[in-house]
Design a protein that fits this description.
It is a single chain. The chain is of the alpha+beta class and about 200 residues long. It contains three helices and ten strands, in the order H-E-E-E-E-E-H-E-E-E-E-H-E. Strands 3-4-5-9-8-7-6 form a seven-stranded antiparallel beta sheet. Strands 1-2-10 form a three-stranded antiparallel beta sheet.
């Protein structure tokens, strides 16, 4: 056994030297979880309790909100558009405007709610939305490990106020959610372009 010891030690040294390479560590490539994206087909959202319509993809399913922090929602036209496949939801809420002061309050709330993500955000971009006649608002896009990377509100400034927020149903990792966000952002753009108040 002892006569093979020098050979064994030499092989160990050579093995360790071969593992060392040139001393540079190579970072592992980023891997994203595999996501099977659904085939899209636009569906018209039209509900008797909501004073608006818009197009949305059929991979999202409608669910009316029944509770809001343990209470009944402020309006029957509060709902979610969910995708279990993508692990995401668009939370939607509607408020009638009863006065100029109420309109100002709703706009302030939209900015305040979006601003709560600033602690974790890397950046925030605001874009003015100019939709169909009587539809305008602001789109908020927040980058970084935030719970809601896309939010917006639409209003006619006198009677109607609609707000929506995209949420992922898991701990947010911007690297892994980025492909899903890009996929869903196109559908949100379609929603904004086709949004209209009922007459």
């Amino acid at each position: 056994m002892t006569k093979y010891l020098p050979v064994f030690v030499l092989m160990m040294i050579m093995g360790l030297m071969a593992c060392g390479g040139d001393g540079q560590m190579m970072p592992k490539q980023r891997l994203f979880p595999y996501v099977e994206y659904p085939v899209k087909k636009d569906t018209l959202f039209e509900h008797v309790i909501c004073p608006f319509t818009f197009n949305y993809p059929n991979y999202l399913s409608y669910r009316q909100d029944s509770f809001y922090f343990g209470e009944k929602p402020l309006n029957d036209c509060w709902f979610d558009l969910n995708s279990q496949q993508l692990g995401a939801s668009i939370h939607c809420s509607y408020y009638p405007i009863t006065s100029r002061a109420r309109f100002d309050e709703l706009v302030d709330d939209a900015f305040t709610i979006t601003g709560k993500h600033n602690i974790k955000a890397n950046a925030r971009r605001e874009s003015i939305i100019e939709g169909r006649a009587g539809v305008g608002g602001i789109l908020f896009e927040v980058s970084g490990p935030v719970a809601s990377p896309v939010q917006f509100f639409l209003t006619d400034s006198t009677h109607h106020f609609f707000r929506a927020s995209l949420y992922f149903n898991a701990t947010v990792n911007p690297d892994s959610t980025a492909p899903v966000l890009d996929f869903m952002r196109k559908d949100i753009e379609t929603m904004l372009k086709t949004f209209a108040w009922k007459k």
